[in-house]
Design goal:
Blueprint (H helix, E strand, L loop, with lengths): L9 H10 L5 H23 L5 H4 L2 E2 H4 L10 H4 L6 E3 L5 E3 L5 E3 L9 H7 L3 E4 L11 H4 L8 H11 L5 E4 L6 H8 L3 E6 L2 H14 L6 E3 L2 H5 L2 H8 L4 E6 L15 H5 L18 H15 L3 E11 L12 H10 L4 E11 L19 E9 L3
Parallel strand pairs: 5-11, 6-7, 6-9, 7-8, 9-10
Antiparallel strand pairs: 1-2, 2-3, 3-4, 10-12, 11-12
Helix pairs in contact: 1-2, 8-9, 14-15
The structure holds S-adenosylmethionine.
S-adenosylmethionine binds next to strand 7 and helix 11.
Length: about 375
């Protein structure tokens, strides 16, 4: 390596050292100069591309696994298959020249280790846009009072499925889940009571340029128990992920109070006026019916497939804690072959804050929702 060039202005340093009354000026300048050169050498070394030792030690994937079913690999590995190498004693790690690794024994998803770890953070803070191209056709989807951002759904789907696997949402609304599935090359289908929401989903899919998936209009409880309809949707395939954002008890259909009036007006705004609408059930019935729907869908879910549910708590009232998320965990955990695996909290930092309770009492501005994660354990 060429000698590092010091950019020290020795004359000016000398002058400053003299003014400061330093005795060994030559010695001090020399020491400073050698420190600067050492620092520059370190920086030059860091700026050079580092040889990827792990990659260099690997053997070509295509030589190691000539008969591997390529479709089982993630797209990002398939795209660089000629350069992919295999490392590790058990030959289960595929590595690319850029250092990204994929475990061949990953039974859940197509993520590398870094992406996996990032997703497991229990708190997710987002500020998704609601206008422009990055809003994923929000202007169409906003006919629904609570549309979910497709990017949020995409990130959840990416963790709980592999490419081309099947995602199902039987409270699909204007299609946050279905659009999210389209954004990450998964397949999906949905059920929704309100045909206008299905139409809005289809328009949004066209606007975004996303694949349009099959949707059924009707009551999910009736469709989930109609085996010929389910068979016509699924054929012999199984669902990998049921991703649901159910109406929260009778939250939307109650008369509004306080600052909610500013958002929705002081009239009830149910998703639909149907008696089958989960949003119109009293809470106790809502928990029962939600459990019933999950029991009905489970036979169509693959072993170790997931059921992921969004839920927001209601405000406490007197001795009522109204922790809906805790009640749902307990209720669904009663299902013998379904286990609760944990939660993520989604905080929507774009949510508007209102002076609830001011100036008398604490009332939380709930900008977060719970993402409850369950896994089917047995067939
Ligand atoms: C919270 S919203 C879902 C919003 C959706 N995640 C989105 O991105 O638009 C719940 C939806 O479930 C629908 N719904 C309520 N009861 C239903 C039922 N029994 N069968 C099918 N859909 C139902 C409502 O019409 C509403 O659109």
């Amino acid at each position: 390596m060429a000698a590092a060039k010091s950019f020290l202005n020795k004359e000016s340093i000398r002058e400053k050292l003299e003014n400061a009354g330093v005795e060994d000026i030559d010695g001090a300048v020399k020491e400073l100069d050698s420190m600067v050169k050492k620092f520059i050498r370190q920086q030059e070394k860091l700026a050079q591309p580092q040889p990827n030792e792990a990659y260099e030690s690997g053997s070509p994937f295509l030589e190691e696994y000539p008969d591997y079913e390529i479709d089982r690999l993630p797209g990002w590995i398939k795209d660089s298959l000629q350069d992919a190498r295999v490392i590790g004693n058990t030959k289960q790690t595929v590595i690319l020249p850029n250092g990204l690794k994929y475990q061949l024994n990953n039974t859940l998803n197509h993520m590398n280790g870094g992406e996996w770890t990032y997703f497991t953070n229990s708190v997710l803070n987002t500020s998704y846009k609601t206008s422009g191209e990055d809003s994923f056709a929000h202007k169409i989807r906003k006919i629904h009072p609570t549309p979910k951002p497709p990017q949020l759904m995409r990130d959840i789907i990416t963790f709980f499925t592999k490419e081309n696997e099947i995602v199902f949402d039987y409270f699909m609304g204007v299609g946050g889940t279905l659009l999210g599935a389209g954004l990450c090359s998964r397949r999906a289908f949905g059920i929704e009571l309100n045909p206008e929401y299905i139409q809005a989903y289809k328009m949004a899919a066209r606007e975004i340029g996303c694949r349009e998936f099959e949707c059924i209009e009707g009551d999910c409880l009736k469709i989930l128990t109609d085996s010929s309809k389910m068979k016509s949707l699924l054929g012999d395939e199984e669902i990998s992920l049921v991703l649901l954002d159910p109406p929260y008890g009778n939250m939307m259909s109650r008369e509004k109070t306080g600052a909610d009036i500013k958002v929705y007006g002081n009239v009830a705004t149910p998703f639909t006026n149907s008696e089958e609408d989960f949003g119109n059930f009293e809470l106790a019935l809502f928990f029962e019916k939600l459990k019933e729907s999950v029991e009905d869908v489970l036979p169509y879910v693959k072993k170790r497939g997931h059921v992921v549910i969004f839920i927001k708590d209601l405000q406490p009232s007197g001795k009522e804690t109204n922790l809906l998320h805790a009640k749902i965990v307990d209720k669904l955990n009663e299902i013998p072959n379904l286990n609760y695996k944990g939660m993520k909290i989604w905080a929507d930092q774009t949510a508007k804050l209102f002076p609830y309770g001011y100036p008398f009492s604490f009332v939380a501005n709930q900008i977060h929702q719970y993402i409850l994660i369950f896994r089917k354990e047995k067939q």
